[in-house]
Each structure stands twice: as C-alpha cells, then as structure tokens.
C-alpha cells in the first residue's frame, strides 16, 4: 500500500501505511517514527492526522 501511495505522490499516506504496518508487526520504534513523519505535513488530511496521533498516543509519545 505504501508503495502505491508513494508512487502517487501522497507521501503522508505512504508514511501512515508504513506506521500501521510497523504497529501490526509490533515494531513500536518504527511505528512512532513513521507517525511523527506523517505529522510534518501542514496540508495533512484530518483522518491521517488522527490516525498518526492515535499511534503516538498508544505509546505515550504525543508531543507536549
């Protein structure tokens, strides 16, 4: 999924797909890293922002 999003130029969605994959595989560090990358985009859709924040909240990594 991430490859398809990336090829379409939707890098935030690609990063979100990678964050969710890492979450499913139990890789907390990678999930958090990718979720933080998603949040860098200022033009981010609300659903992607919420999903990224959910991952960060899950691991107690929300920015103050």
Descriptive report:
- There is one protein chain.
- The protein is mainly alpha-helical and 64 residues long.
- It has one domain (2-58).
- 70% of the residues lie in helices and 0% in strands.
- It contains four helices and no strands.
- It has helices spanning 2-7, 11-25, 28-38, 46-58.
- Helix 3 packs antiparallel against helix 4.
Compact description:
The chain has 64 residues and is mainly α. Helix content is 70%, strand content 0%. Helix 2 (11-25) runs antiparallel to helix 3 (28-38) and helix 3 packs antiparallel against helix 4 (46-58).
Salient structural properties:
single chain, mainly alpha, 70% helix, 0% strand, globular
Number of separate domains: 1
Specify the number of helices: 4
Which radius of gyration do the C-alpha atoms yield?
11 Å
- Cα(first) to Cα(last) distance is 31 Å
Q: Given the helix and strand composition, which structural class is it?
A: mainly alpha
What share of residues is helical? over 70%
**Strand-residue proportion:** under 5%
Low-confidence segments: none
Strand count, sense and closure of the main sheet?
A: none
Secondary-structure element string: HHHH
Tell how many strands the DSSP assignment holds: 0
What is the topology?
Elements (H helix, E strand, L loop, with lengths): L1 H6 L3 H15 L2 H11 L7 H13 L6
Helix pairs in contact: 2-3, 2-4, 3-4
């Amino acid at each position: 999924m991430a490859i398809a999003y990336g090829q379409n130029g939707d890098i935030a969605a690609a990063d979100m797909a990678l964050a969710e994959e890492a979450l499913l595989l139990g890789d907390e560090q990678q999930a958090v890293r990718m979720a933080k990358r998603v949040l860098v985009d200022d033009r981010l859709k609300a659903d992607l922002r919420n999903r990224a924040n959910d991952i960060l909240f899950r691991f107690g990594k929300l920015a103050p």
